[in-house]
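User: Can you predict the 3D structure for this chain?
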Amino acid sequence: MTGLLSSSTRWATIVSIALTGVFIGAGSAVAQPAADIPVPSADPFYDYTDSLDGSAPGAVLRTRPMAYGSPNLQTPITSTQVLYRTTDQQDEAVTTVATVLRPLIPGPTKLISFHTAYDGLGAECDPSYTLSGHGNSNTAAIEQAVITGYMAAGYTVVVPDYEGESLEWTIGRQSAYAALDGIRAAEAVLALPSSTPVGLIGYSGGSVPTQWGAELAPVYAPELNIVGAAAGGLPVDLAHNLPYVSGSTDWAGVIPALIVAYQRAYGIDTDAFLSDKGKQIVGDVESNCINAFASKYPGLTDTEMLAPPYTSLLQVPEVVAAIDDNIMGSVGTPVVPLLLGVGDSDGTGDSVMVTADVEGLARDYCDRGVAVTYAQYTGQNHSKAFVPFQAQAAQFLTDRFNGVAPTDNCAVVGPGNELTPTPLPVG
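Assistant: Here is the predicted structure, written as structure tokens:
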């Protein structure tokens, strides 16, 4: 079920033309390289050493103006970077940064919280860094074009560094908290009321703060006026993704990257189960962005990375516990309409995400009374499904901001996969 509307295509075409005009116009007016700034890990702006005691989630700690553009090409747009207080996976107060962007043509404020698929383990992957014209990721450049399209269409956009200061990838609750607190911080910076309509959107890694944000908002940030959430290419239950990508050509590199993320977020002692080869690969990827590791290890299996007696990461109790802690749909129920989209290129998934997992999540939410549109892009792999998802998401969010009554296709959503936690192995 693609569910794509011709109006979605028209919307995407209009936005593409508009964003092209913004960049071409900017190039003719201000054709100059982005100012050199240090990576976030070496930038004092990100380093907050004062106490966070007494500061509320979303509290603005400092701001600064920042250029917005791509490498060697700046635009007339100036963003505002905001350092703000948020919450980590262990419910501790921490900080992160968001980039706030206003459209060139003012109008009634419609706020998009755009969650990029930066999928990073190193500070140079942070969107606050890449949006200022640094880095060399094709994924970042493509998503920046989409962000610019939303601004060209009149939206205000906030882009959070939702993985946090330590870049903890795929970690659900803290990604949601960072996104929701980024909205709070953006509203404070722009002096907007909490009644300002907000849409959430993200694909692949960006689906994590999007889906979890919708799931946790009713309890964590009930004052926000979120009107809808569009999430595509979702890693619903990584216990299902790991066997799927193990040994694959293009995505086996996510296995060591996930080990790094879990080590950071949960303090897992990886020396207790990694082989020498596994330790070496983990060390190689621990400061990279996804474009540098996803396809770098074709054919790599998790078995190769493990020391005896382990032959699968799903035999390691600490890893299974971390995975179970991040199963989507496990801690809350959204109260806003959802678009959940995923490709299906081989009958199992889109080459990295498991199609029936996303359908199972949609089915679960439908059964809880959520207005869900489930979109399956048959024949499309993870990269190619990005395009129809963005077109459908643009129309979905446009309808939500315009107050169009939400619809769903729950009547035709199948059961999908069971999303029950994996039993902890005896270790």
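The longest strand covers residues 73-87. The chain has a mean pLDDT of 91.
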